[in-house]
Amino acid sequence: MKKGYFGDFGGQFIPELLMPPLIELEEAMATILPTEEFQTRFTNMLKENVGRPSAITYCPNLSKDLGLDLWLKREDLNHSGAHKINNTLGQGLLAKMMGKDVLLAETGAGMHGVATTVAAAMLDMKAVIYMGATDVVRQAPNVNRMRLMGAEIVPVESGTKTLKDAINEALRRWLSDQETTHYCFGTAAGPHPFPTLVREFQQIISKEARQQFMDRNAGRLPDVVVACVGGGSNAIGMFHNFVPDESVELVGVEAAGTGEPGCYSSAPLDHGTDGVLHGMLTKLLQTVDGQIEPSHSVAPGLDYPGVGPEHAHLHATGRGHYVTINDEQAINAFKVLSRREGIIPALESSHAVAYAIENKDRLQGKSVLVCLSGRGDKDLGILDQIL
Ligand SMILES: Cc1ncc(COP(=O)(O)O)c(C=O)c1O
């Protein structure tokens, strides 16, 4: 396999001026990540600050309702409320040990922005967070959290004012501030080495979940593992250690948007074509001329027209199976999990839960392990308008 590629996808499609920090980062991955100092400090932070290992939870009521065994991997229980912190503490510590003092990040739902701000505060660094102006309004509680913990928030007014535009502007900022600043990319996408680096920090999800599931199920593996896919970091973390287990079906859930004919979606694997965005060759929602199309999802963290290259590869090889769930189905899952199990999921994670609900006939009697990537407190404002 070519360096930085997953099959045909990946690479480093970036301006020449961004090569030095990417080379510096790749070198740091080779020299700093394997050291005992890094590994010990990182493991301690995950344990003491994040609360790892996160639990797996059996859902007795919903399992009975649906006729299957539903298990959740509880990334929502992590400090700061989502899987994002596994990555930001890893990248933050790496950047600190590289001698950087600023963590720059983009954010959609605000969870990555919050997690980056937490890492910066813990490591005595400064956080600068780029966020689409639309998301600043949709995810106000997270904006307040970031401000409280000392982040500088930069609202982005260009394009659709969502995640894609925030990444564009953050990459521009990195170009000028690369000496002092690490770009703490929030998902398993972007130019090499980010997809590999982010997977490295997120694979702990499946490392723990695989063992926890076997411990609770007399050594058996789950039949199906499910995760929502925005850029792809919780899903690649949830899939990674199950990829060699051929009996385990891996299902990635993309956002279909409203689901109406011709609507904008956030489902490049299901509806996209090959193209280049944010430094990677991957599947994209684009016009025949290669212009990026607007994306939409009720879940801000899924609202992205591209996807991490490893998912494009798992899709192309058939090892991963990628499906769509629309806004209404996700909102239904949000309500159902809240009422039946007392767990309020993030709207992003609700897409993965909805897969089990909508496919219950096909899944009868099977064990389904869903990555609950985050908690839904941040979404109560959006739902006030809908419920
Ligand atoms: C709770 C939650 N889940 C999932 C996602 C989607 O991101 P990814 O595909 O990188 O896991 C986000 C993004 O903000 C999120 O906040």
Automatic annotation (TrEMBL):
InterPro entries: Trp_synth_b_CS, Trp_synth_beta, Trp_synth_beta/beta-like, TrpB-like_PALP, TrpB-like_PALP_sf. GO terms for molecular function: tryptophan synthase activity. It catalyses: (1S,2R)-1-C-(indol-3-yl)glycerol 3-phosphate + L-serine = D-glyceraldehyde 3-phosphate + L-tryptophan + H2O. Its EC number is 4.2.1.20. Residues 52-374 form the Tryptophan synthase beta chain-like PALP domain. Pfam families: PALP. This is Tryptophan synthase beta chain.
